[in-house]
Amino acid sequence: MKTEYRIFVGVSLFLIVAAVVYGWWTDHAQGGIEWIGVVALIMSTLLCAMCGGYFWFVSRRIDLRPEDRLDAEIADGAGELGFFSPGSYWPFGIAVSALITSLGLVFWMWWLIALGIICVLLSASALLFEYYTGTRRTAEH
């Protein structure tokens, strides 16, 4: 996780420098700061810093991974990477639920927004608990 937090912190440092330069440039070129771009760059900085902070926080609590060690070999990263569902329909359900929510936002129909949010929560929960309940339940749980 050290590699990830270094990347995100580096990008956030670049973005804050870009925000300062952008604000200075627009102030001198137009006679006033163009606030939309400056605020967007500052918000992007904060988002990258938040992700970098999370990865830094996690990297302190786990053992070093092969990509975090300078003396690691390629073979150190071999093996199983995790469990990935071979066939699940729930990502499609989440996409349809997000479509319903976004259509409600576009046409500003509060009932469609509420229905979409409920569908997103239910389908995301179903995806999360897919292997903990029902016929796909694994023996470990």
Structure description:
The protein is mainly α. It folds into two domains: 69 residues; 47 residues. The longest helix has 29 residues. The two termini are 28 Å apart.
How many discrete domains?
2
Q: Count all strands and give the number.
A: 0
- Overall helicity: 55-70%
Compute the number of helices: 4
Summarize the main sheet. Answer: none
Judging from the principal axes of the Cα atoms, what is the shape?
flat
**Class derived from helix and strand content:** mainly alpha
Mean of all residue-level pLDDT scores? 89
- CA-CA gap between termini: 28 Å
Low-confidence stretches: none
List keywords for this structure.
flat, mainly alpha, 65% helix, 141 residues
In terms of topology, how is this protein built?
Elements: H1 2-30, H2 35-59, H3 90-107, H4 110-128
Describe the structure in brief.
With 141 residues, this protein is mostly helical.
